[in-house]
Amino acid sequence: MERKLFTALQGDYAETLNDALSKQGFRRSQNVLYRPSCAECTACMSARIRVRDFAPSRTQRRLIRRNAALVRTATSAWSTEEQYELFRRYLDARHATGGMADMDIFEFAAMIEETPVRTRVFEYRAPPPPGAAPRDGDLAAVCLTDVLDDGLSLVYSFYDPALSDFSLGTYMILDHVEMARAAGLPYVYLGYWVPGSRKMDYKAKFSALEIYKGGVWQNI
Question: Which of 5, 26, 60, 154 could cross-link with 21 by S-S, CB 3.0 to 4.6 Å?
Fold first, then answer.
C-alpha cells in the first residue's frame, strides 16, 4: 500500500510554498504538492544535483557533443497538439502500462498548463532548414520545468522514442544543469529516485547527487 502526504498549491503564496516544500522532498503535480509518506518504507527519495560540484562523466560529455545540434526554445506553460503527439508516442513506447497510459489531450493540457508557480516548457528540436525559424525543426523532446528560488525542478519530460540512441532524457538533465549554472541556481531537482528501479537507474549516474533522507539532504 502506498501513502502520500498532499497539500494544495494555490493563492498568493503558492510560489513560496513550492520553494519551501521542494527543499523538503515534495514534488509538484499541477496545483498539488505531494511526498511519499509510507509507514514502513522510505524507498522513494527525492534527488537533486549540486550544480557547483557537478562534473559530467566521459559518457555524458560524449552525449552532450552528440546532441549539440539540438535547438532549445523556452515557452510559457502552454500545451500544443504537436507536444501531445510526441507525448503519446513516448508513452506507447516506454510506459504503455503505466498510470498515464490513458491520458487524453485535455488531461495532457492540464498537466502542462495548471500551474500556480513559475513554470517553463523547454522544447528541443532538430536543426531547422536553412533560413527557417527554430520552431520549424522537428520536435525531439520536451521538458516541463519549475523555476524555484534555489534551482530548476524537472516536473516531467518526454522525447521521441525513435531517438532513444541519443539518450535525450539524460541530455535534458545535463542541459538543465548548464542552465542552472548560467542562472546562478545551486540545484537541479530530478524528482524521486528508487534504489533498484531500472527505470530510475540513470539518476544515480549523475555526480554531486543528493537524496532527501531522514529529514536532511545527503550525498547518495
Answer: 26
